Amino acid sequence: MIELKNVTKEYTKGNAALNGVSVKIEKGEFVFIVGDSGSGKSTLIRLIMKELDPTEGTIIVNGRNLNRMKHRHIAKYRRGLGVVFQDFRLLKDRNIYENIAFALRVTETPTRVIKKKVPAALSLVGLAQKYKSHPKELSGGEQQRVAIARAIVNEPAILLADEPTGNLDPTNSWEIMSLLKEANERGTTVLVVTHNQEIVNEMNERVITMKHGVIVSDEQRGGYIDED
């Protein structure tokens, strides 16, 4: 599903944000990526999103070598990913329905399909009655739920969440993590970058810990990791 082979990313010569990272994430896994600021977590996510290219090494996602991906194919590749950010990144001038529908329109999804998928995604995150609301009318937790609905509406194989609970109180944080877990249970591979150690400790999932651009531990709390 996702494999990094000896990946190094230098922003400037000799300054490696990632240094020889190798890791494999299998289809259907739920993985936390943790570590202090500057440990390389967000760089890892940006490489998987193809926002960055590695200085060295190989990145393979769904059997595709990102190193060899032509620029014209990047947008289509990203449409197959669901992405959730700490700052929500909703379109402020559009209502909630249109925010989610936008993710479908860029893939040229027929209108009849959009009319089915958007309400279904809103129902999954508990916001079916607020489809006419604008982002400013919602709480932070509600906005993040909209962001998750937008991320899952295309039924992506992979969902990347970069500090999805960073701006939320504990109650909303747990609600968001529950939604991510539900997406995982429906078959989506989920990667969550987080500083929230309480959530990581409570959830029985794989935890990759990074420090100074390398993976210092890879712990499967809920089962067995195949190291081959």
TrEMBL record:
GO terms for molecular function: ATP binding; ATP hydrolysis activity; transmembrane transporter activity. One of its GO terms (biological process) is cell division. One of its GO terms (cellular component) is plasma membrane. It holds the Pfam family ABC_tran. Keywords: ATP-binding, Cell cycle, Cell division, Cell membrane, Membrane, Nucleotide-binding. It is found in: Cell membrane. It is a peripheral membrane protein. It comes from the Bacteria. Residues 2-228 form the ABC transporter domain. Homodimer. Forms a membrane-associated complex with FtsX. Part of the ABC transporter FtsEX involved in cellular division. NCBIfam families: FtsE. Belongs to the ABC transporter superfamily. This is Cell division ATP-binding protein FtsE. The lineage of its organism: Bacteria, Bacillati, Bacillota, Clostridia, Lachnospirales. The gene is ftsE.
